[in-house]
Amino acid sequence: MSTDLPAACPKGSQEPGPAPGPAPGAPPGPAAPPRRLPLPPLLAGLTAALLVSVLCGTGLGAAGVTWGETLRFLRAGLTGGSIAPGEVSAYTIVWELRFPRALLAAVVGAGLSAVGVAVQAMVRNALADPFVLGISSGAAIGANAVLLFGALGALGVWALSGAAFVSALAAMVLVYLAARTPQGLTPLRLVLTGSAMYYGFSAVTTLMIFSVDRGEAARSAMMWILGSLGGATWSSLPIAAAVVLAGIGCLLWTARSLNALAMGDETAAALGVDPERLRRGLFVLAAAVTGAVVAVSGAIGFVGLMVPHVTRMLVGADHRRVLAVAPLLGAVLLVWVDIASRLLLAPVELPVGVLTALIGVPCFVLLMRRRRYTFGGA
Amino acid sequence: MQVDIEDLSVEVAGARLVSDVALRAGSGQFVGLVGPNGSGKSTLLRCAYRALRPATGTVRLDGDDFHALGAREGARRLAALPQESASEFDFTAGEVVAMGRLPHQSSAGRVTARDTEVCAAALERVGAGHLAGRSFPTLSGGEKQRVLIARALAQEPKVLVLDEPTNHLDIAQQLEVLALVRDAGPTVLAALHDLDLAAAHCDVLYVIRGGRIVASGPPDEVLTADLLADVFGVRAHRVAHPETGATRLLFDRLPTS
């Protein structure tokens, strides 16, 4: 905001031909693109970082398990080796709690980041994130019905994620029906409808929390609304992982069309992409991935907003590059944020969503100010 | 490639915006569409690049029904420059031009050497080779327009549809853009705001009012003082260009009686 030019100083007067020479301090060469990192080393580096991060997520924790033991338990778990009877509780911590949790953090981070990219292109809005469509707050209603009222008790361990997923899809249908017009889904209507529904669904959730007079239940509901990976188990992993991977695959497949859509509906049409059909497909995909992710981790905010932007600052706006990098970046980020959420106030565990915001906001502002980044106008 | 628009009508939200339009652009011709604001120029053109579906009528490219062709096949034959140019996204000019190859690529297909070649040639063609690495949203209006024309050329179309390509450009840029498009090769169908520019650049002009074509033919025959008074509400003088002798137009307000 402080960079706004006074009205008397119009831009665009720099037209007449190429400048006689580079301005002082400007990088040499007129067409040097300074802010595109080469993709292969970046992807290799991020993949390595992700492996190390998951390892750290498994090794670090309040209960002191040495790195040697951690690696041994991991090998035992992966290859079916045996462990001494005295080590069962340490093994359980490593193999049953921390490892699936680190993996889930990676899956959730990747999913939220990829969907964030897709939704921002779909509604052509820099402030959009996976939650702007109201899907997460819809999921919260289902989750809270389970947490507060013990709904769907017959489903056992699947009750929470099942209820969250189903209510996420119900929310999606509601938003879709409310937003659609004879001309189809327009970006602005989609954002407005989603945002309005978000508040509506949140109000219902709050009402539910207040109507239940049990502190502990309200606390776990709160934890879920702010997002937490504390419920990670091996059983919660496969569906979320499959949906997220399939979603990322589909998005990579349509990356070129996303570029066209980002330029505008008419441009997309002129380039042979049906914007209406693409947006409908993206909406369903975003809802499915968000639903699957939110079902296992609650509504972890800010990742889906920030990671796409950070990725664009690193590799530019081409969706083929963004969609390759953003999921890895989001995965690494969330694994580390989850580690921090367990260690900072140990043994008390912080909601991950609180930390993603606390860490993310300053990083984001710094990056945005340092690099000349122009999403949303120069 | 010849473009034939036959009996075309467009309805949006129950309102008939274009009625029974017939229009022909012969292969390689530069055909202009002029009319007052709200006369249906853009609506008509939108049907020609698939952003709108006509209620009745057809758009034919060398006889083939354009809307019956697949979207990609259509985009290989016909490229368009819509009026919207706002991109929120920080694409480079080179990336914007590369989008023109979309109809020629499969989803998972790699960028071929030919793709890269065609894009580079298109940028050079519009004199914007030096802009390839620049951020598209930070370009000036004239630079943006040149990059967008390069994108359309990278589609290797046989027909080019332009919706007010000279909007927001200064006079030198307007002349440059029209010359570029003229020399590019494909059949051109363009909505133009500036009647004098249209008269100077088009082979054939169609005048549209209230969604109907009211006159058509070579600019000299079409843009008569009577028609300009009737359709545009201006008093027009036709004068000869002092150097070339070509007909130019001067405008005044109609006398209020």
Automatic annotation (TrEMBL), chain A:
InterPro entries: ABC_BtuC-like, ABC_transptr_permease_BtuC
Superkingdom of the source species: Bacteria
This protein's record includes keyword Transmembrane helix: yes
Region (Disordered): 1-36
Keyword match Endoplasmic reticulum: no
Transmembrane segments: 42-65, 102-119, 131-150, 157-178, 190-212, 224-255, 282-310, 322-344, 350-368
Compartmental location: Cell membrane
Keyword terms: Cell membrane, Membrane, Transmembrane, Transmembrane helix, Transport
Pro residues bias locations: 17-36
Membrane topology annotation: Multi-pass membrane protein
PANTHER family in the cross-refs: FERRIC ENTEROBACTIN TRANSPORT SYSTEM PERMEASE PROTEIN (PTHR30472), PERMEASE OF ABC TRANSPORTER-RELATED (PTHR30472:SF67)
Family per record: Belongs to the binding-protein-dependent transport system permease family. FecCD subfamily.
Name the record gives this protein: Sugar ABC transporter substrate-binding protein
UniProt source species: Streptomyces hiroshimensis
UniProtKB/TrEMBL annotation, chain B:
Protein name: ABC transporter ATP-binding protein
One Pfam family hit: ABC_tran
Organism of this sequence: Streptomyces hiroshimensis
ATP-binding among keywords: yes
Stretches assigned to the ABC transporter domain: 3-235
Keywords assigned: ATP-binding, Nucleotide-binding
InterPro entries per the UniProt record, alphabetical: AAA+_ATPase (IPR003593), ABC_transporter-like_ATP-bd (IPR003439), ABC_transporter-like_CS (IPR017871), P-loop_NTPase (IPR027417)
Record keyword Nucleus present: no
MF (Gene Ontology): ATP binding
